[in-house]
Amino acid sequence: MIQGERQRLLERQIAALPERQRTALNLCFYEGLSNRDAADIMGIRLKALQSLLMRAKITLKKTLQESMEE
């Protein structure tokens, strides 16, 4: 039951991310594409994709930690 709650929380937090960060996460982690392929699909440079992923991870980590502390 706790695992299900965590999964729903994570899904809500991902949905709250800016669209480009959410798209980068989905392509790389859910679709299993390489960073290069995801960058090509999004029409951005590899470094830009990596930046989007890093910002998304930082935001998710912060918001999930805050949610767990409540």
Layout of secondary structure:
Blueprint lengths: L1 H14 L3 H12 L4 H8 L3 H24 L1
Helix pairs in contact: 1-4, 2-3, 2-4, 3-4
CA radius of gyration is 13 Å
Uncertain segments: none
Q: In CATH, what is the class?
A: Mainly Alpha
Q: How many beta-strand elements?
A: 0
Give the DSSP E fraction (strand runs of 2 or more residues). under 5%
Structural class by sheet pairing and helices: mainly alpha
- Shape label: elongated
CATH topology: Arc Repressor Mutant, subunit A
Helical residue percent band: over 70%
CATH structural architecture: Orthogonal Bundle
Overall number of domains: 1
Distance between the termini: 18 Å
Main sheet characteristics: none
Average pLDDT score: 92
How many alpha or pi helices? 4
Structure description:
The chain is mainly α. It has one domain: Arc Repressor Mutant, subunit A (Orthogonal Bundle), CATH 1.10.10. It contains four helices and no strands. It has helices at 2-15, 19-30, 35-42, 46-69. Helix 1 crosses helix 4 and helix 2 crosses helix 3 (35-42). The longest helix is centred in the C-terminal third of the chain and has 24 residues, at 46-69. It is elongated, with a radius of gyration of 13 Å. The mean pLDDT is 92.
Highlighted features:
70 residues; Arc Repressor Mutant, subunit A
How would you sum up this structure in a few lines?
The protein is elongated. The chain has 4 helices and no strands.
